[in-house]
Design a protein that fits this description.
The chain is of the alpha+beta class. It has one domain (7-11, 35-145): Nuclear Transport Factor 2, Chain: A. It has three helices and four strands. The protein has helices spanning 7-14, 38-53, 68-88; strands spanning 98-106, 112-119, 124-133, 138-145. The protein has a four-stranded antiparallel beta sheet with strand order 1-2-3-4. The longest helix is centred in the middle third of the chain and has 21 residues, at 68-88. It starts with 6 loop residues before the first helix and ends with a strand.
């Protein structure tokens, strides 16, 4: 099993040793396939997903970064959390969140699996994500908040 990579290491692992211009990938020569570093996106998606569930952020703000399935899942989680807040009388507030750690595992098929550990003032949260290259940009195809 491959050890987790930090954002800096994963960026280095994705960088080709030399430019093949898409040779052998079925790409047109000269097509720029460079994708942005995943760590900032993983951090942001983990934080924003927790804010959506906490009722402090509108889910629509994540729509372009997640698939329809992830959007529906987060919508359901936010709805359940809103009902729980209504029953207990808790007011939705922006949580004070801090990313503690980002572990990511790039795969051979061009996806990145990651786990982000986030702390608030009460407890840690673990967010599991999977990013895929969709149209030369990263999109989250899995977001699971534990």
């Amino acid at each position: 099993m491959t050890p987790p990579m930090t954002g800096h290491q994963s960026a280095q692992a994705r960088e080709p040793e030399h430019n093949h211009d898409g040779e052998g990938l079925g790409l047109e020569p000269g097509l720029n396939r460079a994708l942005p570093d995943t760590e900032p996106m993983l951090r942001a998606l983990a934080l924003r997903s927790l804010e959506v569930i906490a009722g402090a952020r509108d889910l629509e703000q994540l729509a372009r970064w997640v698939t329809d399935e992830v959007y529906a899942h987060l919508s359901q989680r936010a709805s359940i959390a809103a009902r729980a807040r209504a029953i207990t009388g808790v007011v939705a507030a922006r949580p004070m969140l801090t990313v503690n750690r980002v572990n990511q595992w790039p795969s051979d098929d061009g996806t990145v699996n990651a786990v982000v550990v986030v702390y608030d003032n009460r407890r840690p949260h673990v967010v599991s994500l999977k990013l895929e290259d969709r149209g030369n940009r990263w999109r989250a195809t899995v977001v699971a908040v534990l």
